[in-house]
Design a protein that fits this description.
single chain; 157 residues; alpha+beta; Protein Transport Mog1p, Chain A; 8-stranded antiparallel sheet
Length: 157
């Protein structure tokens, strides 16, 4: 038992260090991360934009570039299916015309969806249990989408 205690402590320390890492890179699309909000603060920011709670506390919002050329909204759900269901609801809401966004269009079967609305160009997709929403200038959004994890195969909604 004594020999396994140091190993257990080491594993727990590595797990905690992994949890403390930001979910989004310091540089994305050639831009430095200028601001980051996580947890409750990120969930509140998203709720304020929607007028109601929409994101889990496991969310992160990051702004890139001096002028906010790119913003990334990332929500992590307990299961892959949860993220897929949320994406489907978002796409349906935009298709209905009840939002300030244009109806989303699929990006060449990639599993990513593009729309235009407040804040510029937007691309959204699911990669396993993570829902990504990028907002900003077209080139920054496209490049960032290529640098982040790819959509989960089969999550096309």
């Amino acid at each position: 038992m004594r020999r396994s205690l140091p190993a257990l402590v080491a594993v727990l320390a590595l797990a905690l260090a992994a949890c403390a890492r930001p979910a989004l890179p310091i540089r994305l699309a050639g831009l430095h991360r200028a601001h980051v909000w996580s947890g409750e603060r990120a969930a509140r920011l998203m709720a304020n934009m929607h007028g109601r709670d929409v994101a889990p506390r496991s969310s992160v919002v990051a702004e890139y570039g001096r002028e906010g050329e790119l913003r990334v909204f990332l929500s992590v759900y307990p299961k892959d299916e949860d993220a897929g269901r949320v994406l489907a609801r978002m796409l349906e809401a935009m298709r209905s015309g009840g939002t300030p966004f244009t109806p989303p269009g699929a990006e060449d079967g990639s599993g990513r969806w593009a729309t235009f609305g407040p804040g510029g160009h937007h691309i959204l997709w699911v990669s396993h249990s993570r829902l990504y929403w990028l907002q900003g200038l077209p080139d920054a959004v496209e490049q960032a989408a290529a640098e982040l994890p790819a959509p989960t195969p089969g999550v096309w909604t």
